[in-house]
User: What shape does this take?
Amino acid sequence: MKRFLVGFLVIMVVMLFAAYPDKPITFIIQAAPGGASDMVSRTITSIAQEILKVPITCTNITGASGAIAMKRLQTSKPDGYTMGYVPVELSMVKALGFADFGPEDFDLLMRIMVIPAAVTVRADSQWKTIQDFIDYVKSHPGTVTVGNSGPGSIWHIAALSLEKAIGTKLVHVPFDGAAPAVAALMGGHITAVTVSPTEVKSGVESGQLRILAVMSEERSPLFPQVPTLKELGYDVTVAAWGGLALPKGIDPQIYKILAEAFKKAYDSEAFQKFLSDRGMTPAYLDGENFKAFAVSQFNMFMELIPKALGK
Assistant: This one.
C-alpha cells in the first residue's frame, strides 16, 4: 500500500509539471512603454511564448525607479505564472531607500544585455560637440535641465556622474522611464537626457536629436561617429543592464522549463538581431552567475549611491 501511494504521488507530480504552463503568464515591466526595458521585454516574451505555447502578457508598472513593479513581482505567488524584467535598479533601490529588497530576494533567471548612457540634446540646439555642451554648463551652472528615468535610476546616476566629472551643477528632471524623458526633450521641455543610445535612436535618425557622447569604454556600434567621454578625458563610464526574474521560491522543475525556453528565445536569430539593431551588447548570464553579478552590483551601489546623492 505504501509503495502504491508513493508511486501515485510521483505520477501526480510528473503530471503537474508536464502540464506547466497551461495558462497565460504575466510579465511585469518596471518602466513606461517605449524604453529599453519595455522593448527588450516585449521582444523576448513574444518569442518565448511561441516556445512555451501559452500567451505571455506584458504589463507596465512605473514609479520609484522600478521599485513598485519589482515589489509586485517579489510578492507574487511563486507558481511560474508571474515573472518580470529586472534592470540595474534591482541592485540600487535599497540604497536609494525606495525598497527593502535586493537581488537575493528573487529567483533570477538570466541576464540579457548591457547598454551605456549617452548625452543627447536636440539637433537644433547650439551644441555640436560634447565640449561645447560642457563649456556651456560650466558657464551656466544650475540652469541646464537633464532628464532621467526616475530619481536614483541608472540614468540619474549617469547625469550625476557627468556633473561630478565636469565640476558643476545640472538640474535633474525625473520621469517614469526613459521614453517620456526623451519625449520631453523632443518637445523642447528639457535641455538634454542621459539615457541609452537605443532610446534616442529614432529621434537621431529622424533628425530631431543629436548624441554628443556615450559613457562607455568603447563607442556605440549604433553611432560609431560619436565619441566616448573617456576618450575626451572625462573618466565617466555608466551602463545599465537587464535580465529576467521570478518570485523567490519557484519549484526547480518550473524554473528549469522557463530557463530553457527563455534561453532559446535569447539565442534566436530574431532576438540577437534585435539587440544588434538597437546597439545593446548581448551579455547572457545564467541564473546562478546573474545572481552573483547582481549581488556584487548591489554591494557597490550600497556604498556608491549614498555618496553620490549626499546621503
User: Anything to note?
Assistant: The two ends are 65 Å apart (CA to CA). Residues 36 and 199 are 6 Å apart (CA to CA). The longest strand covers residues 106-116. Residues 10-14 have pLDDT under 50 and may be disordered.
